[in-house]
Design goal:
The protein is built from eight helices and six strands. By secondary structure, it is α+β, with helices and mostly antiparallel strands. It folds into two domains: about 100 residues, no CATH class; about 130 residues. The chain has a four-stranded antiparallel β-sheet with strand order 3-4-5-6. A hairpin with a 2-residue loop joins strand 4 and strand 5. Helix 2 packs across helix 3, helix 3 runs antiparallel to helix 4 and helix 3 runs parallel beside helix 5. The N terminus is likely disordered.
Length: about 240
Amino acid sequence: MLLLLMPLLAWPASFDCQKARSAVEKMVCADPELSKLDAQLEQTYQGALNTVASQVKANKTTADAPSKLVKEQKNWITYQRNICTDAACLREVYQARIELLKRDPSPFSHLYPVGFIDEQAISFPRDFGDEIQSINQSILDVSKIYDKGGEFGKLIGFNQSVIDKKDPGKITGCSKLIYLPSGGTAPNAYTSAGVCMFQKEKTHALVRICLNETIGNYVIEKITKTNMPYKELIDFANNKCGVGG
């Protein structure tokens, strides 16, 4: 019995592991590395809150910055961390969140940080909450366009086995979410792509999605792993939803 309790007692997370209920919380409590990352994130987050509060006092940011950071952290838990289904995914999202809060504690700093993978420019939204709502609205809009038919409707290449016209479903969260510039003949277009959880009625499915509203491409496919490499997600987005995809 003591051996069974050791994972909960020896590796304290930022929350009470004796009250862990969700699958994600249980994974964190059962893994010493994840428990350490969770505690480290809490420390980093509190430090970011203190930094932002100091910025408010010094009139370097607006008074709502602390509350926005609190909301951002809650959105990270709901829309990003809780989508993970394995330890590898959790390690990745925890490490990314810790690095972001250390680099840019203010919620108004670099809302869409830019990075490069294999010379491909990528924008990473800081807060997934608003972005996922926008994607869900696009799913609804695309479904309506498809239902009406027409030339633009024919361009939309989404997977009918996952989404249909009567009930398009919705994205409940993403472990990864990126934006890619389309370039080519549509320089102002961009492709959004993510590894997400898709809900339709009472069922859930892990999917990868890409969306380019400018050129009318939208694809959603079922997958089996949340810790998909960024390179794989980028290739999927460029091939399926980019210019010429």
